[in-house]
Fold this sequence. Notes:
There is one protein chain. The protein is about 10% helix and about 35% strand. By secondary structure, it is mainly beta. It has three domains: about 15-95, SH3 Domains (SH3 type barrels); about 105-165, SH3 type barrels, CATH 2.30.30.40; about 175-290, endopeptidase fold (from Nostoc punctiforme) (Alpha-Beta Complex), CATH 3.90.1720.10. The strands form seven sheets. It has a six-stranded antiparallel sheet with strand order 20-25-21-22-23-24. The two termini are about 40 Å apart.
Amino acid sequence: MIAFDPRLTPARPDLAAAHLRGKVEAPDYVEGRPARIREGVAGLRRAPNFEASLDTQALFGEEATLYEDEEGWGWIQLTRDGYVGYVSMNALDMNSLDMNALDESRAAPTHRVRVNQSFVYPCPDMKLPILDALPLGAAVRVIDAGGGFARIAEANYVYAEHLAPLETSEPDFVATAERFLHAPYLWGGKTSFGVDCSGLVQISLQAAGISAPRDTDLQEKALGVPLDLSGASTSLRRGDIVFWPGHVGLMRNETELLHANAHHMLVASEPLAAARERIAAAGAQITSIRRLKSPDADL
């Protein structure tokens, strides 16, 4: 049997995914069922109750695998970043992955939300009360469009200019992160209504078509290449990712850091030197600065 990271492995002392048989020990194994998130934002929690810690958020249209449905809570693993946790069953559509579904809105998404938030209306009329809010990165299937709106389901309309084809990406992930400036800090958050440090990095990179793990320690292992911090000549540039134990931020240029943080309780921009000094006073030092590989950049 192997040791595993419970954040990324659908295994508990009493239950595990069938594909883990022989790798992790559990009294029972279960085949997962495909699902898709059907609420604008769904909280993924550490335990099956609304008082449990929010570990991350799943966005509308995200694919998941359901391993347990118990008393209104689903134990799932998200497909995009592999995160495991509990979500309200009300947030799950169990029929949405059928490409031949009679309800066309339940087939595969075609577009993504490209703005921080876009409202869902019952008709193509902005004066009507909204049904939901879809965050940056949410995935929808556009059935038809007209009058400035896209229909994504029966009686569900989104402003068409807020959508982009699923295969397109943002050219500058730092510019995406900058759109969250002054958004409130929320542990486990991934939207402009509330975001944490690693959530800001993840959603900004994903908008640029770059896969990223959810948590800081996983990002530090997976993203880019480390810079040599020992040389005095080492200069930073836009897009460099700065890591501390349990914290991460993005460089806007060679001196300015953008990060969601609990000091300001906001997404804030400040000199890296100021942030480094304050965090060092609390007992933590920079562990690495990593740079994403670029075909037109010297590493």
